[in-house]
Specification:
- The protein is of the alpha/beta class.
- The chain has three domains: about 80 residues, Winged helix-like DNA-binding domain superfamily/Winged helix DNA-binding domain (Arc Repressor Mutant, subunit A, Orthogonal Bundle); about 90 residues, D-Maltodextrin-Binding Protein, domain 2; about 100 residues, D-Maltodextrin-Binding Protein, domain 2, CATH 3.40.190.
- It has nine helices and ten strands.
- Strands 4-3-5-10-6-9 form a six-stranded mixed β-sheet.
- Helix 7 links the parallel strand 7 and strand 8.
- The termini are far apart.
Length: about 300
């Protein structure tokens, strides 16, 4: 058994396709299939359900996957620790973040990139629950999420402030007077929204209901990119966080603050307290403390 076999297994889990997994690992599909069969032979287990195409993992395969993730995280941590002993910060920082908040992750990644040019980033858009779970399972190094479900017994936390909201729109299709809007101004306005279940969407729904309003949702998506496409096409507007940078994606996009529009739970940057913690995660979290004014 070697590290490459485990990487092949995780690539198959990520892509759910033999050809795509092989391409991700920069090997041919026959090579990937052969190495996975060698792993199965060594473990004396069937890990992958095979037919004309990938059909999923066996129960044993799912259990082995969990160990593979842990072993690869430990391998990456060892490499990062060795680099740290040499006075370097190299490798990949795995950061999970909620997709919509009044914090642009580039405020963190750009200073880190400037200080540590060899550092790479794996950025995942996740719900708060998924961020917490990913940190707990050592699938993420750090996370940005809402703090209402976070225990400081298990996580170190840097608070990043409150998420405030405004109406994002394309000026070619919609126009509004004044520098601020009320919730009542959004009533019956065609809106694009995140899919139900996301923390941001839940807070938005509560804000409308508490005022006796029912938004005219003409589109739902789990992708912020799709919402921006809809705005550009004039399909709708969207209630989006202030200061997240979305309005900078096009010269035609504008965001107008909405009065008393905020998410009550603060946003925070998290680092798991328990070991193993990579040297990269600890160094980047320490830099974040300085960057965001935390002693």
């Amino acid at each position: 058994m070697d590290i490459k076999q485990l990487k092949f297994l995780l690539a198959l889990d990520q892509t759910r396709h033999f050809g795509q997994a092989a391409a991700l690992c920069h090997v041919t599909q026959p090579t990937l299939s052969m190495r996975l069969r060698n792993l199965e032979d060594e473990l004396d287990l069937v890990l992958v359900k095979r037919g004309q195409r990938f059909e999923g993992f066996t129960e044993a395969g799912e259990r082995i996957l969990a160990w593979a993730r842990t072993l690869l995280a430990a391998h990456d941590g060892l490499q990062a620790e060795a680099a740290s002993c040499r006075g370097q910060v190299v490798g990949s920082l795995r950061l999970g973040t909620v997709p919509l908040a009044s914090f642009n992750p580039m405020q963190l990644l750009l200073p880190l990139r400037e200080k540590y040019p060899e550092l790479q980033f794996q950025l995942s858009a996740l719900s708060s629950e998924q961020v917490i779970d990913g940190l707990s399972r050592n699938q993420l190094d750090m996370g940005i999420c809402y703090l209402d479900q976070v225990s400081t017994n298990y996580f170190e936390v840097i608070e990043l402030g409150t998420t405030t909201m405004g109406l994002l729109h394309d000026t070619r299709h919609f126009s509004f007077e004044g520098s601020q809007l009320r919730w009542e101004d959004l009533d019956q306005l065609p809106l694009g929204q995140l899919s139900k279940g996301m923390h941001y969407r839940q807070s938005l729904d509560l804000s409308f209901r508490s005022r006796g309003l029912e938004p005219l949702a003409v589109m739902e998506s789990d992708s912020t990119f799709h919402l921006i496409q809809a705005l550009n096409a004039g399909v709708c507007c969207a209630v989006m966080p202030l200061n997240c940078g979305l309005e900078n994606l096009s010269e035609h996009l504008r965001i107008i603050p909405v009065l008393d529009a905020s998410i009550h739970s603060p946003l925070g940057l998290l680092l798991r307290r328990s070991e193993p913690r990579s040297a990269i995660a600890e160094q980047c979290f320490a830099e974040a403390k300085v960057l965001f004014g935390m002693k």
